[in-house]
Amino acid sequence: MQNKKTRVIGSIVTIIILIMLVIVSNIKIEKWHMAGNTINSIVLPVQNVLTYLKNKIAGNEAFFVNAQLVKSENEKLKKENEELSSKLMDMEMLKAENNLLKQQMNLVEQYEEYKSIPGYVIQKDISNYGRTIVINRGVADGVKSGMVVVSEQGLVGYVISTSEKSAKVQTIIDTATAVSSVITSTRDSIVVRGMLDSEANLKGTHIPTTANLLEGDTIETSGIGGIYPKGIKIGRIVQIINTNNIIDRYAVIETAVDFTKLENVLIIDALQK
Amino acid sequence: MKKICGILCIILSFFIIYFLQVNFFSWFNIANIRPNLFILLIMIIGLFSGKWLGPILGFVFGLILDILCNKIVGISGILFMILAILIDIICKNFSKENKLTFILILIGSTVFFETISYIYNSIIFSMDVEIVAFVKILIIEIVFNSLLTIILYPIIYKLGDKLESIFKQTKMNFQNYEVF
User: Fold this and answer.
1) Are A99 and A110 in contact (CB under 8 A)?
2) Is A132 in contact with B32 (Cβ distance < 8 A)?
3) A150-208 confidence digits (pLDDT tens)
4) CA B135/CA B141 separation, integer angstroms
5) A128–B148 CB contact, under 8 Å
6) ipTM strictly over 0.90?
7) B6-26 pLDDT, tens per residue?
8) B16 and chain A: CB distance < 8 Å anywhere?
9) Interface contact A199-B154, CB threshold 8 A
10) Most buried one in A58, A165, B41, B130, CB count within 10 A?
């Protein structure tokens, strides 16, 4: 009996620890406004009383004079507010739909010289070591292996396999991907690879010893390699790591595409201009 | 009939785990790292459903996963099959009723599967081997897998018992029949 009780308590404690781990590891610094709210809920009532007393002392009582009038006005405003909220919600929905269509239009226009197919992401990788995605376009829509996938912000990856209604895309943040690229300003060529522990950064290697790198430099595809067409934005240099040997130095590149929020993509046939 | 129902339940569990991995664990994660519940499933099949079913289902499930998500087809299938065979061998020497033994086998299985899979991918795709990053991810994955196993252990044990009575009972009867 005691043993069973201990087991139940043990399981509950483990569940609590697991949930706490998940919550704490996912909280971003901006999310601390929750703590701010809690503190405010303690501080604000006291502050209100103090303000009221201050107003009273200062003879600022006009606010409470026509209480009945204020009450009816308040009711009217509440009704108006409800109506406006509902209208705002409709507007927001229309705006989101409009944005989605606009994004797709912009994408198609941006790559109008290529034969292109718009699509969206339906699944992300389930493994911790790979970064492939699945999109909702397949052989039936004209997608073939080797086609390049881009988003409005820049390069996403390329199609590695297709089925009738979907295609698997190996993204540039996958550690198995290596993209031949150039630094936009100096035209020095580098190789960009995915990093295992980051979804937002890439590693720029094979930097020429004579190349002059600067933080903030943008990186784009070089067109060498036969997969990616020239001039598609990859990202920008955020850090340069210098080593004892200049040949081994590398750059940390922030991807132009936010892969955590990636939804709309365009599949382009780089071979058929 | 019971055997077919048992196999259907295992296949259903595989798809439930698949959808959990794709959807639920994309936000319920520790530092962006998800658990690998497929290893747990293969372990349960390997431990409780006999010498043949574990490797066969392990291979089929691995192959499906490779087709659905991975860059190359085959490696997960082969590794899951080997894992099921190894677990069947190991469980002959250890007691599977012990929770600690169960978790230790799970840790070993996670290390085995993820390490070989990573090395294989590194060779095939000429990837830079990032040992520190890999170990960090592996440790978090092991902790996550172990915590989930501790929580789910009562269910796992009951399921295992059921599977064992379906798949190993028949085998025992068959052996008895042979003796007679």
Assistant:
1) no
2) no
3) 998 899 999 999 988 899 999 999 999 999 999 988 888 999 999 988 889 999 999 98
4) 10
5) no
6) no
7) 889 899 999 999 999 988 888
8) no
9) no
10) B41
| Bridge partner list, A149 | A157, A267
> How do residues A120-143 score in pLDDT, each as one tens digit?
898 888 888 889 999 999 999 999
How crowded is the C-beta side of A236, counted as CA atoms within 13 Å?
Answer: 9
Say if residues B30 and B143 touch (Cβ distance below 8 Å).
yes
Q: Kindly list the distances between the CA atom of residue B106 and the CA atoms of A128, B37, B52, B64, B132, in Å, as whole numbers in the listed order.
A: 17, 10, 20, 22, 22
- Amino acid in position A158: Y
Which residues in A lie closer than 8 A to residue B154 (C-beta atoms)?
7, 11
DSSP string, A131-165: -EEEES--GGGT--TT-EEE-SSSEEEEEEEE-SS
Sort strands A264-269 and A115-124 into parallel, antiparallel or unpaired: antiparallel
Which among B31, B121, B133 has the least Cβ separation from residue A176?
Answer: B121
Question: Using CB atoms within 10 A of its CB, is residue B43 exposed (0-12), middle (13-18) or buried (19+)?
Answer: buried
